[in-house]
Each structure stands twice: as C-alpha cells, then as structure tokens.
Amino acid sequence: MGVPPHPYRAVEISQVETGWMPCALFPELNREVLEDSIQSYALRQKYRIAYFITNYHAAALDAEHAELLHCKKGMPVMDITSRGVLRDGRIFVYSRIKAVQYECTYVSPFNKDVFLSRRKIITEDA
C-alpha cells in the first residue's frame, strides 16, 4: 500500500485525508469534484452550508498512516475530524485528517454578546 517515490523530485507528504459524503445528496459526485472543492460543489448543487464542526486532538500514528506518510508508527500527529452541516441540519461532508507537524492560526471576530454573557456568569458564580 506504500506510495512510490516520484522519479523527478522529492515528495514530502504531511497529511492524509479521508472523507465521506452522502450519496443521496451527491449522486453525480466524481473524482474531479473531490480533487477540487467540495464546498463549491455543494453550493453549485444549491445546498446552503450553515457551519463546520472541527475537532483537533493529538494522536499516535497507526501503521497504515505511517506507511502513507513515510513516518514511524507511533509518531505524534494531529488527528482532525471535521463535519460540514447544511442549514437544514444534514451533514454533507465528514472528513478525518492525520497530519504531521500541524500548525494553525485562527482569527475570530469579537462577539460582544457572548463576552457579556460570560461576564455575567462569572460574576454570578463569584
């Protein structure tokens, strides 16, 4: 199941992603779509995307992914699970990523209502 080396340049694989999409929502899904943008495809199909739920946790690399990533089994990786949810509540995509040397940065807008509600809870508990 190993990945053969590229004959012209060094290839460094840093993550492996496995995804699932419901066939009932996407009966004409093909490889070209999967290699491009699943979100764009869903929007072209007139689905209304509401949000994504993403979970990050540290894990040890299993034998299958170690072979794919050319790493040692047991090496620490970031295990990322993501679900895309439509406005009607249906999950339209589920993916799982194993990533080595993972790093990310988030920019989150300030939400005054959430801030004030948290302040109120802290004040009431004190």
From TrEMBL:
Coiled coil region boundaries: none
Domain UbiC transcription regulator-associated: 14-96
GO MF annotations, alphabetized: DNA binding
BP GO annotations: regulation of DNA-templated transcription
A Pfam family: UTRA
Name this polypeptide is given: UTRA domain-containing protein
Species of origin: Faecalibacterium wellingii
Lineage, top ranks: Bacteria, Bacillati, Bacillota, Clostridia, Eubacteriales
